[in-house]
Amino acid sequence: MTEDTDITLPRPPVVVIRSAKPHDLPDLNQMIAALAAHHGDAAEITPEKLQRDLFGPLPWITALVAEGDDGLIGYAILVPLYKAQEGKRGMDLHHLYVRDGQRGNGIGHHLVTRAREIARAAGCDYLSVSAATGNFAAHRFYENMDFIPRPVTGMRYMQALS
Asked: Which residues pair with 18 in a beta bridge?
């Protein structure tokens, strides 16, 4: 006969996926800068620009955040798209980021799932995302989430307006 003993198991971290709020802007700004640095880009984003683009008179983007016990641990940014020739609305998953030490825990999956729900609720026909050519881990991640790879064709041009 064995004796019962109480064992305390570690509590799994609670992660909440929610829309960004104004008080999230400093942490969101820092994560955007971290993602830019990871890709070798300079980050020109500021909390003030995020305030304008998320909460200003003409909101331009939608941001989701993943909040854990110790604060924000990830985010996703969505930007509307449109295919005029087809009359189809879309949403671009412009950024997806999970902090070091938190990756592999399903947080990115939950952010993409919530982004998909937001796109559907906005009447979108599709959700798109891009990943750097050599980022094979991202390619596998998106393909495992049922994204279909599409080659980029043509050139994209830009003209500064300021």
From this structure: 65
Find tokens 């500021």 and name the residue: 46
Query: Within a domain: residue 66?
Result: yes
Structure tokens that stand for 45 in this block: 């984003």
Domain that holds residue 26: 16-144
Q: Give the SS3 label for residue 38.
A: helix
CATH number, domain of 75, equals 3.40.630.30
29-68 residue pLDDT tens:
999 999 999 889 999 999 999 999 999 999 999 999 999 9
CB 86 within 8 A of CB 69: no
CB atoms within 10 A of CB 17: 19
Identify residue 58 by its one-letter amino acid code. L
Domain count, the chain: 1
Nearest to 76 by CA among 47, 112, 42: 112
Is 2 inside a domain boundary? Answer: no
